[in-house]
Design goal:
The chain has two helices and no strands. It has helices at residues 3-35, 45-75.
């Protein structure tokens, strides 16, 4: 791989890293909201929606991490 493509891939990796950090922050906020829902509302729609959002964000974070790993492997050697 030439230097131009390697640098472009590294830039994409940095962008993914920034997106992951932002997503983790949003996930943490949603998790805090979920943890503070009163017990009487924990079987309600808002709780389920927040729980699904946290789970989806966790899945997205994992996917971004996999992409970052693949990019890192691509730029090595």
């Amino acid at each position: 791989m030439n230097n131009k493509r390697r640098k472009a891939l590294e830039k994409v990796g940095q962008t993914l890293s920034e997106a992951k950090d932002e997503l983790e922050s949003l996930r943490d906020e949603e998790k805090e909201y979920l943890d503070n829902i009163p017990e009487s509302l924990q079987s309600g729609e808002k709780h389920d929606t927040a729980e699904n959002a946290v789970s989806s964000m966790d899945d997205s974070i994992n996917s971004i991490e996999e992409a970052m790993f693949s990019i890192d492997e691509s730029t090595q050697g």
